[in-house]
UniProtKB/TrEMBL annotation:
<dbReference type="Pfam" id="PF00293">
    <property type="entry name" value="NUDIX"/>
</dbReference>
<dbReference type="GO" id="GO:0004452">
    <property type="term" value="F:isopentenyl-diphosphate delta-isomerase activity"/>
</dbReference>
<keyword id="KW-0414">Isoprene biosynthesis</keyword>
<comment type="pathway">
    <text>Isoprenoid biosynthesis; dimethylallyl diphosphate biosynthesis; dimethylallyl diphosphate from isopentenyl diphosphate: step 1/1.</text>
</comment>
<dbReference type="GO" id="GO:0050992">
    <property type="term" value="P:dimethylallyl diphosphate biosynthetic process"/>
</dbReference>
<keyword id="KW-0413">Isomerase</keyword>
<feature type="domain" description="Nudix hydrolase">
    <location>
        <begin position="27"/>
        <end position="161"/>
    </location>
</feature>
<dbReference type="InterPro" id="IPR000086">
    <property type="entry name" value="NUDIX_hydrolase_dom"/>
</dbReference>
<dbReference type="GO" id="GO:0009240">
    <property type="term" value="P:isopentenyl diphosphate biosynthetic process"/>
</dbReference>
<protein>
    <recommendedName>
        <fullName>Isopentenyl-diphosphate delta-isomerase</fullName>
        <ecNumber>5.3.3.2</ecNumber>
    </recommendedName>
</protein>
<dbReference type="InterPro" id="IPR011876">
    <property type="entry name" value="IsopentenylPP_isomerase_typ1"/>
</dbReference>
<dbReference type="InterPro" id="IPR015797">
    <property type="entry name" value="NUDIX_hydrolase-like_dom_sf"/>
</dbReference>
<comment type="similarity">
    <text>Belongs to the IPP isomerase type 1 family.</text>
</comment>
<dbReference type="GO" id="GO:0005737">
    <property type="term" value="C:cytoplasm"/>
</dbReference>
Amino acid sequence: MPVELVDEQGRAIGNCAVAEAHTAPGRLHRAFSVLLFAPDGRVLLQQRAGVKTRFPLRWSNTCCGHPAPRQSVAEAAAVRLAEELRITAPVREVGVYRYRADDPATGRVEDEWDHVLVGEFDHLPDDPDPAEVAAVRWMEADRLEADIASGPADFTPWLHGVLTAARAAR
């Protein structure tokens, strides 16, 4: 699958294979992260499947992925929610979180212009794709912030930035 390469201002400058974008030293590319909130403010997290090539078995936002070149971020997010968690939920973009992270366990690199999307959802998905998701859970946002601070290796390196952007927009 190709990903859209971007410059430091998020403007499209080309594309490459997803594996190439995540091979050291990495290439800056467009991505998205969805964070769904329950009506009471809890956030829906997923534990990434053990077969993931980047940050396997770490807890992360509801879902994430890469839009295809020229695909809308909202459309790509809807597709990934359906594929990974087998759910639908309306989402809206609330900002961009730019980050870079090396995964010492796999040698892969994240260098992403990450569009943050939020939405509401009111139950726990009961049939996530096991090739994508090891587990799902709801967590109170303040507790999540504290857990990330005390045990960052349990979480994906982008989760704190995504959570901060999502909470600022609520």
